[in-house]
């Protein structure tokens, strides 16, 4: 199975800050990394697919980059509504696997 | 608008069989390239992919489930059913179903809100 190592597990930032989360795959997954936002009690939401493609309707302050084994997810300017847990997922091979998640809080 | 909703028991005893139903709208599982998957997330842990079923009845399972799980679809009811035998307390988790469509194969594009299943004697 491909392991997805996500860091940090939590972070606290101020409104307007740039927030960066990383995911490292245990083997080359090409560009097949995706990022989701999960708010408590709600359905997880796809934000970024194929490493850097913005899902339709997702604000442009969210972005992703990377390929191979190293991937980065960025919120360019943190807003209060961005408080959530974010997690990565690989789809290069089965079984699909996820990162451990990053809980983002407002400082 | 695509929506999915999970339903099933909230409490099970060890060794019982779990049957979860995902009822969806806004798409058809008869459409080429469409799939519905199941994912679970134990409290405080990472999500874990369980299974996927496609429009052509192709089925995929996580090896971690071994032979415990079965996924089926009922296109007339717009439902996907996941059964898991021999449930254990470690199977306590929130269970989600999610929609996927090619060319974004294995990308979980739209999720349900999830249903919490507790396994306890």
Describe the structure.
The complex is a heterodimer of chains A (107) and B (121). Chain A has strands at 4-7, 10-13, 19-25, 33-38, 45-49, 53-54, 62-67, 70-75, 84-90, 97-98, 102-106. Chain A has 107 residues and is an all-beta fold. Chain A contains no helices and eleven strands. Chain A is globular. Chain A starts with a strand and ends with a strand. Chain B has 121 residues and is mainly beta. In chain B, strands 2, 4, 5, 6, 9, 10 and 11 form a seven-stranded mixed beta sheet that branches. Chain B has a four-stranded antiparallel beta sheet with strand order 1-3-8-7, with no helix packed on it. The radius of gyration of chain B is 14 Å and the shape is globular. The N and C termini of chain B lie far apart (40 Å). The relative contact order of chain B is 0.32. Chains A and B meet through strand 5 and strand 10 of A and strand 10 of B.
Q: Which structural traits does this protein have?
A:
heterodimer, A: 107 residues, mainly beta, 7-stranded mixed beta sheet, 4-stranded antiparallel beta sheet, globular, B: 121 residues
Describe this structure in a few short sentences.
Chain A has 107 residues and is an all-beta fold. Helices cover 0% and strands 50% of the residues of chain A. In chain A, strands 2, 4, 5, 6, 9, 10 and 11 form a seven-stranded mixed sheet that branches. Chain A has a four-stranded antiparallel sheet with strand order 1-3-8-7, with no helix packed on it.
How much strand content do the residues of chain B show? over 45%
Helix and strand content put the structural class of chain B at mainly beta
Shape of chain A: globular
- Largest contact between protein chains? A-B, 24 and 24 residues
Q: Profile the largest sheet of chain B.
A: 7 strands, mixed
- Average pLDDT of chain B: 96
Number of helices of chain B: 0
**Amino- and carboxy-terminal Cα gap of chain A:** 36 Å
Task: Give the low-confidence spans of chain A.
Answer: none
The H/E string of chain B reads: EEEEEEEEEEE
**What Rg of chain A do the Cα atoms give?**
13 Å
Determine the mean pLDDT of chain A. Answer: 97
Order of helices and strands of chain A: EEEEEEEEEEE
């Amino acid at each position: 199975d491909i392991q997805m190592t996500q860091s940090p597990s939590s972070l606290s930032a101020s409104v307007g800050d740039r927030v960066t989360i990383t995911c490292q795959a245990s083997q080359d997954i090409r560009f097949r990394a995706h990022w989701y936002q999960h708010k408590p009690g709600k359905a997880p939401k796809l934000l970024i697919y194929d490493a850097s493609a913005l899902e339709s309707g997702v604000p442009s302050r969210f972005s992703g980059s990377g390929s191979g084994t190293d991937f980065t997810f960025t919120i360019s300017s943190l807003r209060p509504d961005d408080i959530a847990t974010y997690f990565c997922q690989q789809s290069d091979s089965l079984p699909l696997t996820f990162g451990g998640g990053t809980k983002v809080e407002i400082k | 608008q695509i929506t999915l909703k999970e339903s099933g028991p909230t409490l099970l005893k060890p060794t019982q069989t779990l049957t979860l139903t995902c009822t969806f709208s806004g798409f058809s599982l008869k459409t080429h390239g469409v799939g519905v998957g199941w994912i679970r997330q134990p409290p405080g842990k990472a999500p874990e992919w369980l299974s996927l079923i496609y429009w052509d009845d192709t089925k995929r399972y996580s090896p971690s489930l071994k032979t415990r799980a079965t996924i089926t679809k009922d296109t007339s009811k717009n439902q996907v059913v996941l059964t898991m035998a021999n449930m254990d307390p470690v199977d306590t988790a929130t269970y989600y179903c999610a929609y996927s469509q090619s060319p974004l194969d294995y990308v979980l594009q739209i999720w349900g809100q999830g249903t919490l299943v507790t396994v306890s004697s």
